[in-house]
Design goal:
The protein is an alpha/beta fold and about 400 residues long. The protein has 2 domains: about 220 residues, Rossmann fold (3-Layer(aba) Sandwich), CATH 3.40.50; about 150 residues, Glycogen Phosphorylase B (Rossmann fold), CATH 3.40.50.2000. It has a 7-stranded parallel beta sheet, with helices on both faces. Helix 1 crosses helix 13, helix 2 runs parallel beside helix 3 and helix 7 packs across helix 12. It starts with a strand and ends in a 12-residue tail after the last helix.
Length: about 400
């Protein structure tokens, strides 16, 4: 049994939280002691039975400038607030004496958290005993970094990290697609498979039954997709089907009011569904964004799907994922620049006329495999060659 110090910070969306939660749960199931350091605002349905959760003073991405970290009251976190977080992290590290420290995303992202993670890395380096350090990342990274950022990340990985867990199937997409200096860290990369819900969870019976499920996560940037989907229904071959539209808990009231006036009697509007993957499994079609967790749910469900990647002019991850899905014919895709009721209705008809895509060769056992790799690294044992970067 290894002692694992698991650091996770979410800044806006919650996809990182649930991916980390699934991995932490697998670590507990495999007998490891997990101290989970949670740096964002608490969210519903987060639970890791058997682990110890250490909540830091919460931080989130800035409302106006993302790099300006905010406290829950909306004010930019000052040096004193940041110092409290750093002190808490170092205290937990010194108290728990872990065999392995895992930093979710950093240093291949989450650069805003350098103020507390560099002191942690320094503390690890100062230890007389050996402490392994690994990073945990999704399979597609944000692109278009400055050269100095790439240099900094690569140097940190080579100097202080034992390994980087890539939570993806390299036959679906390799990290080199979104990380230009791939060769500089290739020797540290370990592919785990996609962290998806297990089959039993995906098959859970849910009262929210429908033919078509439309979802946009929390809803912060889902307005255009929701509007297009509601208007596309009457124009599509699924106009007489039962639709469930989850508009997200953060959707503004004006948009919700507009949607309520636009839907027909066979369409239900809800803020969220508790078991989205179960709803997708029972539906004929899923229409959604193209984030990591949503696509993992789709892969596990065996359901036809259409994704409309998020594009805000800065984020690139979902656009890349959508292009891969389109090329491999694993999902219908509508580019956000071409989104309208007409284009979405046309894609609905095209997807429904095709067989359900065969996704059987995609590795979806990422949670359990991540936990196994973490255990092997913590114990200094060799990793299977099949998991290493080619």
């Amino acid at each position: 049994m290894a002692k694992i110090f698991y650091y996770m910070q979410h800044l806006m969306g919650v996809g990182h939280v649930f991916r980390s939660m699934r991995i932490a749960q697998a670590l507990v199931r495999q007998g490891h002691q997990v101290d989970f350091i949670y740096g964002g605002e608490p969210i519903p349905n987060f639970e890791v039975p058997g682990a110890t959760i250490h909540y830091l003073p919460p931080l989130r991405g800035g409302s106006f400038t993302f790099k300006d970290m905010e406290m829950p009251n909306g004010k930019v976190a000052d040096d004193g607030y940041r110092a409290k977080r750093t002190a808490k992290i170092l205290e937990v590290f010194k108290t728990t004496k872990p065999d392995l420290v895992l930093t979710e995303t950093f240093p291949l992202g989450r650069r805003q958290m350098r103020f507390e993670l560099i002191p942690l890395l320094d503390a690890i380096k100062a230890e007389a005993r050996s402490v392994k350090v690994i990073s945990s990342i999704r399979d597609i990274l944000q692109e278009n970094w400055k050269p100095s950022r790439y240099d900094e990340a690569c140097e940190l990985i080579q100097d202080q990290y034992t390994a980087v867990l890539v939570h993806g199937d390299r036959d679906f997409i390799g990290l080199e697609t979104s990380f230009p200096p791939y060769d500089r860290i290739k020797n540290k990369l370990v592919y785990t498979g996609i962290v998806a819900p297990d089959a039993a969870q995906a098959d859970e019976v849910t009262p929210e039954k429908c033919d078509v499920i439309v979802s946009v996560g929390g809803g912060v940037m889902g307005k255009e997709l929701l509007m297009a989907a509601v208007d596309a229904k009457a124009k599509s071959s699924l106009k007489d089907a039962n639709w469930l539209v989850a508009h997200g808990v953060n959707m503004d009231q004006a948009t919700i009011d507009h949607l309520q006036q636009s839907v027909d009697e066979k369409t239900r509007l809800v803020p969220f569904v508790k078991n989205l993957r179960g709803v997708i499994s029972g539906a004929k079609l899923s229409i959604s964004r193209g984030g990591y967790n949503t696509v993992a749910d789709i892969f596990r469900s065996g359901t036809r799907s259409i994704v409309v990647p998020l594009s805000d002019g800065i984020e690139t991850e979902q656009l890349v994922r959508g292009e891969v899905l389109r090329e491999k014919r694993l999902s219908g895709v509508v580019h956000p620049d071409h989104l309208s009721a007409e284009t979405l209705a046309k894609e609905i008809d095209r997807v429904m006329a095709l067989p359900i895509p065969d996704r059987g060769n995609i590795n979806l056992d990422g949670a359990e495999q991540s936990a196994r790799m973490i255990g092997l690294i913590a114990e200094g044992k060799p990793l299977p060659e099949t998991a290493l970067a080619r």
